[in-house]
Amino acid sequence: MMNLNLKKLAFSLLVAGCSVTIASAQNYKKGDNLLNIGAGFGGGFGTPIGLSFEHGFSDKISGGAYVSYSSKKEALGAWGDYKYSYILTAARASYHFSFGGDKLDPYIGAILGYNIASAKWSGSGTAPASASAGGVIYGGHAGARYFFSDKIGIFAEVGYGVGNLNAGVTFKF
To answer: With bands split at pLDDT 50, 70 and 90, how would you rate the model's confidence at 33?
Structure first.
């Protein structure tokens, strides 16, 4: 149900953004290097702290890498608790729209990568189980960057993958 609502929100943002027409220069262009530093919310991985980099391969397409770390605890009462840790690495690609003016960079995209997960027990007695695992992670995103200056701004993304909402600061160089 949550994923369906997020998909509806992302689609609504995309449709609303496509209906806006602003006659000004596009903020994103070929050759731009974009660095996002932020936090994610939702998605079941705890609160991921992430870093993504993208290079502009054309006036519409950028690609790069994403890495994040998150952890969360699950308390099991008097017995103890588990601490789950996740290290996510992924390739990332985005399609940039040409509306939005010279300060706004709206985009949609996808990630494909690997999740390294571990679980550690802390409590009385023998641990029921502690394990490390990993697996493929994939997802899509719809977002925008708003630049306060030529080089510094903020970003927000909704989607499915690492976090349902990711937000933070962005740099262009």
So the answer is: very high
Distance CA 83, CA 80 (A): 10
Tokens of 46: 């705890």
Rounded CA separation 19/111 (Å): 26
Q: Which fold has domain 2-19+27-172?
A: Porin (2.40.160)
The domain limits of the chain are 2-19+27-172
Angle at 20 between CA 140 and CA 11, to 5 degrees: 25
Collapsing DSSP states into helix, strand and coil, what is residue 1? Answer: coil
**Cα atoms in the 13 Å half-sphere on the side-chain side of 128:** 7
pTM reported for the whole predicted model:
0.77
What tens digit of pLDDT does each residue of 45-83 get?
A: 788 899 999 999 999 999 999 999 998 888 877 778 888
DSSP state of 4: H
